[in-house]
What does this fold into?
Amino acid sequence: MSDMTLAMIAKNISKTYGHGSSKVDVLHGINLEVQAGEKVAIIGASGSGKSTLLHLLGGLDHATSGEVILAGQSLARLSEAQLNQVRNQHLGFIYQFHHLLAEFSAIDNVAMPLRIRGMAAKAARELAKDMLAKVGLGHRVDHRPAALSGGERQRVAVARALVTKPSCVLADEPTGNLDAQTADTVFDLMLDLAKNQGTAFVIVTHDPLRAARCDRILHLDHGVLKEA
It folds into this structure.
């Protein structure tokens, strides 16, 4: 498979915390290829290293060995400034908790990654407004997070992750803090936007029904990643 069809590659990555007798091996020799537009679910017991794996894939933490390749570049070989730039251009992040900035409106929260990229405020807000309309919040653009429901906040977080048209979105229990009906709505939205934008998703979830709706399910067990 050509690297051009791949959104992300992980080659033999391992993660160890501590030294000597206090050493804890969290991940062991993980290999993963995510195709452009593919939706990959990662399941596993609590404490199995799922969030650690996402942090390594997103360059938020460094692997003890192995490498993650994004946009043809090995993350381990980039300076912090280069890493921030690659993340901003090619990755989106969605967490269980929305992590919106309380003092900013929905539109300004969504525009933030574009502003960090250097886009002019007016253009960034136009793109943010369009993305909020796509997630069904065109009528809530000026509301701050405190004035939004839990589901609406998470939809703003989805819009923020996708507004830059990243090649891959890393989602850590993105619906885990929502009631079942709202979670279904947000998950449907993520899958629809992934299909329409060609964005790949790597989704950590404890929910087997939502995992089953992805293209592929991988199981993380005692630091080893395998097909479920």
